[in-house]
Please model this.
Amino acid sequence: IDRRFVAELLGFDEPSNNSLDGVSDRDFAAEFIFAASNTMVHLSRYSEELILFSSQDYGYISIDEAYSTGSSIMPQKHNPDIAELVRGKTARVLGGLTAILTLTKGLPLAYNKDLQEDKEIFFGVYDTLTDCIKVFTGMISSVQFNVETMLAACKTGYINATDVADYLVSKKGVPFRTAYEIVGALVSYALSKKAPLDKLTLKEFNTLYIKTDAVGYQDALKEFERLQTAGETLFDADIYSKIDIYRTLGAKASYGGPAKTAVKQSIKNLRKRLKALSN
Model:
C-alpha cells in the first residue's frame, strides 16, 4: 500500500512514521484537550471578572438580559448565568484533560480496547468548548460599560500615587526611594480623610506626614529640610495636572501599557492575528 498516497487522499499532511505508534498514539487528542482546557481557564477567569464587575458592589458593567436571568424569589437579583455556566463548564473540560492522560498513562503498544474511551472524552470536550465560545462571544457583545462608575473607582484607588512620586523625582530632584516614603505617608493621610489625592489642598500636599522621630525615614526628613532651606515646597500647583487620571493612564504608552493609544494598537494587532488565522 502506498501510505503517502492514502494520506494525501485523506487530507493528511503525511502518514505516521510507525504503524504501531499510529494506532496507539493519542498525543493529538491530549494536545487538543490541553489547548481546550487552557482556553476554558481563560474564559473562566474572564467570567469571574464579569460576575464580579456586574455585581452591585462594583457596578462597572451591565450584562444584557438575554444572557442573564432574574432570581426565582428575589425580584431585584440579576444573575450573570452565562458567565457562571462557562465558569462551571471549565471543570468538565479540565476533567477531560485528566481523563485522557490517565487513560493513556499505562498502555503498552499497540492498540488497546481502553482507547475506545477517548472518543467520549475528545468529542465531549470539543462540544463543550465550541458551545462556550459561541455563547461567551454573544454575552461579551452585549456588555454595557458604566464608564462614570469605573472612573469614580479609579479616583478612589490611588492609582496616581506613583505619578506623585515621579513628580518629586523629575521636578524636585528627590531620589525615588525617598519620594516613595513621602508619598506613602501622603496616601496614608488621604486614606484617613477618605479623599482622593486630587481633592487634597496644596497645603496638605506640602505637609510632611512623617514624624520627626520616625525610624527609617531620615532620608525623607532630610529632603524635606533641604527643600525648605532652598525656599522650595514639595509640590507646586501643577501637581494637579500631573495626577489627572486620564493623564496618568495616557502616560503609560509603552507597548502593552494601559494608555488608549497602546490599547488600540493591541486591539489592532490581535485583529490582524485573528484575520491571519481565519485565512
Observations:
- The mean pLDDT is 93.
